[in-house]
Amino acid sequence: MSHDYFGFSYIRSNARNGTATVALNNAADISVIVVYFLVVLAVGVWAMVRTNRSTVGGFFLAGRSMVWWPIGASLFASNIGSGHFVGIAGTAAAAGIAIGGFEWNALIVVVILGWLFVPIYIKAGVVTMPEYLKKRFGGQRIRIYLSVLSLFLYVFTKISADMFSGAIFINQALGLNIYLAVIMLLMITALYTVTGGLAAVIYTDTLQTIIMVVGSFILMGFAFNEVGGYDNFQDLYMNAVPSITTNISESCYEPRADSFHIFRNAITGDLPWPGLVFGLTVQATWYWCTDQVIVQRCLSAKSLSHVKAGCILCGYLKLLPMFLMVFPGMISRILYPDVVACVDPAECEKYCGASVGCTNIAYPKLVVDLMPNGLRGLMLSVMLASLMSSLTSIFNSASTLFTMDIYTKIRSGASEKELMIAGRIFILALIGVSIAWIPVVQSAQSGQLFDYIQSITSYLTPPVAAVFMLAIFCKRVNESGAFYGLIIGLFIGLSRMIAEFAYGTGSCVNPSNCPTIICGVHYLYFSIILFVVSCIIILAISLMTKPIDDKHLYRLCWSLRNCTEERVDLEKEDWVDNQNSNYMDIEEEEPGLCKKAVMCFCGLEQKKAPQLSPEEQAELQKKLTDTTELPLWRNVVNANAIILLCVAVFFHGYYG
Fold first, then answer.
1. How far apart are CA 404 and CA 423, in angstroms?
2. How far is the C-alpha of 71 from the C-alpha of 53, rounded, in Å?
3. Which of 233, 290, 410, 571 would be 468's cystine partner, CB 3.0–4.6 Å?
4. Cα–Cα distance between 395 and 59 in angstroms, integer?
5. Average model confidence (pLDDT) for the chain?
6. Which of 86, 99, 103 is nearest to 164 (CA)?
7. How far apart are CA 470 and CA 490, in angstroms?
8. Are the beta carbons of 223 and 327 closer than 8 angstroms?
9. Helical H runs in 96-177?
10. pLDDT by residue (tens digit) across 142-185?
11. What is the pTM of this model?
């Protein structure tokens, strides 16, 4: 007898006749998956041998040597996880194309990232985002607050949602024990990150982005072929209703009249247009411009022009989810209306084990049912790629945050080698927490996975976006204003979040009884309100308290970005490279063969970096904080940015 795992049986059974089925039971599919994994591991090993992983700059910032195309591909791959394939396709099946607007908003925000935020981060010479705030404001409390909040957000939104959606997909396709499948994936994921550092993550991201895009394009072709083209698709979608509706209101199962519009009514729309334009931009600014996962990729570029070109490439790639995920999700509803669009709780329970709805299985069902042998294996590889890509990014960035922002408080005299080991051990601890979190993920309510991610982001991140924006563009803002803005903003956001989860978010058939005054405000509107309130608090408290002298702010805010005077840091560094200390000069005995192999595998080689004179050290620091661009390439990337913004406006207008 099979055991149930939050509604998904360990062995996938055919919903209609109860027979157990495993989709991947042929040589072609299995061969594709095996070859794929071998190629990915080979790329990881190549990156491991090729890059310098035995220094903090090497392991965490890929030696600042990356060029534009892997950065653009890595930004896209880090952002698109299996949560997107399952969540976006599911929401599209339920409500139409508006969810694609979430992806297209990024076309504008990546330009803000490359042209406004990253130049300041590079000039500041920082590795993590909390480190920037520490240089900008001084004090420890903001930096610690941000590090802890980031780690919590990683667990509650990114890791949990990715693993939940990965579990749905693997269960649909393989019929594997879910715990076994997820733990196996996590172990392979950890293997990359622990061994390769950021360079391995970026190179494997690049490979996986290609596989994801090619596989998704093939599936899109099969899906449109099934419905007979785009015009047919529009007509068929508007008529895709389940056959069993009992006496449930038509509004719960009929496709929305505005299904093919991104911009929807400001009051009655499920994704109101002011929320999509302004509220989503607040979240996107937090995610793209201040989040460690994204910014770390930009900081690894060899020059600012490469950062900008990478952002532009990422922007163009972000056009694709509408065609690769949204439309196929809607086609899944056309092909399987009784399953994907089920509305009767008992029917939904029968098909996917979740009474609130089965839209989350829209994309996995297309893959399992439409793809021929071999290509089905490729698509499973795509899902594994996106899951692992997201997780590698998160594990690497979380270990950077922990090592540089928390561990250095505990061990300020730690050697570089000790920090490397601490970062790797923390990745293993994070994996333990992730596995323990699997049973809790069901609280994400399977019918609303993407809503769950976006709503938590709306409640917790607007104060952070406000602090970063004002830190860069308003030099009058000080530590007291920023800290109290963050704390009061967090309190307001948590009060809404806790109330919503206490009452439950409900479904169309069984709505939540949460009071309208608390839950009636759409989460995107709440995001705007929280952002504005946070800005007012930060500015008001800053104006009532003592300003920070300019000598502490050189190259840390926009108005002082080109100052060449030496900056007087408000706080001394928590950790300095101890490679010249007496501790490091102790004569160490030659390690044995076994220890040598382990050290080499983890990038902790005995060979020391060459000793640098103070002049060489200053020159290296100058190179790392250099934002100069060749005039030709600066003009090329600027022209491309304008073209990208025009493309964004065109697509919003066409599908608006």
1. 9
2. 18
3. 290
4. 13
5. 79
6. 86
7. 17
8. yes
9. 100-104, 106-112, 118-124, 129-137, 141-153, 160-174
10. 888 888 888 878 777 777 777 777 777 777 776 666 567 677 77
11. 0.82
pLDDT in tens, 439-484: 655 545 545 678 778 888 899 999 999 999 999 999 999 999 999 9
Amino acid 48: pLDDT: 67
Phi, psi torsion values for 5, nearest 5 degrees: -125, 105
Q: What angle do CA 158, 264, 503 make, to 5 degrees?
A: 50
Dist CA 115 CA 636 (whole Å):
13
Q: Would you tell me how many other CB atoms lie within 10 Å of the CB of residue 649? A: 13
DSSP string covering 508-570, please? SSSB----HHHHSS-HHHHHHHHHHHHHHHHHHHHHHSPPPPGGGTTTTSGGGTT--SPP--S
Whose tokens are 């382990």? That residue is 598
Q: What pLDDT, on the 0 to 100 scale, is given for residue 639?
A: 96
Backbone angles phi, psi at 301, to 5 degrees: -75, 150
Give residue 237's Cα distance to chain centre: 30
Query: Which residues are CB-contacts of 599 (< 8 A; sequence separation ≥ 6)?
Result: 591, 605, 606
Encoding tokens for residue 163? 């693993």
Cβ atoms < 10 Å from Cβ of 14: 9
Residue given tokens 């002298």 in the structure block: 549
Q: Which residues are CB-contacts of 148 (< 8 A; sequence separation ≥ 6)? A: 406
Amino acid identity at 356: V
Decide if 537 contacts 489 (C-beta within 8 A). yes
CA distance 387 to 261: 30
Nearest to 165 by CA among 81, 262, 86: 86
Helix (H) or strand (E) holding 389: helix 375-401
Q: Which helix or strand (DSSP H or E) is residue 78 part of?
A: helix 68-79
Q: How far apart are CA 473 and CA 152, in angstroms?
A: 27
The 3-class secondary structure across 602-655, one letter per residue, is CCCCCCCCCCCCHHHHHHHHHHHCCCCCCHHHHHHHHHHHHHHHHHHHHHHHHH
**Residue 570 CB contacts under 8 Å (≥ 6 apart), including other chains:** 134, 135, 137, 138, 139, 548, 552
Mean pLDDT of 43-61: 63
CA atoms within 13 A on the CB side of 314: 36
Which residue from 564, 230, 229, 210 is spatially nearest to 385, judged by alpha carbons?
Answer: 210
Tokens 């007509």 sit on residue: 235
- The contacts of residue 443 (CB under 8 Å, 6+ apart) are 501
Q: Is 88 exposed, middle or buried (0-12, 13-18, 19+ CB in 10 A)?
A: buried
Task: Assess whether pLDDT exceeds 70 at residue 114.
Answer: yes
- 575 three-state secondary structure: coil
Give me the helix-helix angle, 449-460 and 523-544, nearest 10°. Answer: 10
Q: Find out whether 237 and 333 touch, Cβ atoms under 8 Å.
A: yes
Count of CB atoms situated within 10 Å of the CB of 396: 26
